[in-house]
Amino acid sequence: MKKVYLGILLGVVAGIIDVIPMIIQKLSWAANISAFIFWVVVGFFIACVDIKLKGVLKGVIISIILLIPLVPIIGWQDPVVLVPIIIMNLILGSALGFFIDKYGR
């Protein structure tokens, strides 16, 4: 159970890291809250899913899979806005995967 709590805690940290630039850009609170919750859920799933992959790759794959249903909603009007979101997913997803794998035993 320690791994699940670590995943949620690190998801909260990733959510804060992701939301800080969004607040600076004055994005809506709905977008900020959605992004924060997204990372908490990603941390939970990375900790719970048992795939025989390295932590970094596991984190990237799970974060991208969880992003897929949001892509049409976010990028419908302007697909270019997806670029920083995907970059942040690669960075934070790999970091979550690494740290959950390393310290969640």
Enumerate the spans where pLDDT stays under 50 for 5 or more consecutive residues.
none
Q: What value does the Rg take, in angstroms?
A: 13 Å
Q: What is the β-strand count?
A: 0
Mean pLDDT equals: 95
Helix coverage percent: over 70%
Total of helices: 5
* Helical/strand content category: mainly alpha
Question: Beta fraction of the residues?
Answer: under 5%
Largest sheet: none
Tally of distinct domains: 1
Describe the structure.
The structure is a single chain. The protein has 105 residues and is mostly helical. The protein has one domain. It is 79% helix and 0% strand. It contains 5 helices and no strands. The chain has helices at residues 2-24, 29-48, 55-67, 71-75, 82-103. Helix 1 runs antiparallel to helix 2 (29-48), helix 2 packs across helix 3 and helix 3 (55-67) crosses helix 5. The radius of gyration is 13 Å and the shape is globular. 23% of the residues are buried. The model has no long low-confidence stretch (mean pLDDT 95).
Entry keywords:
105 residues, mainly alpha, 5 helices, 79% helix, globular
Summary?
This protein is mostly helical. The protein has helices at residues 2-24, 29-48, 55-67, 71-75, 82-103. α1 packs antiparallel against α2, α1 packs antiparallel against α5 and α2 (29-48) runs parallel beside α5.
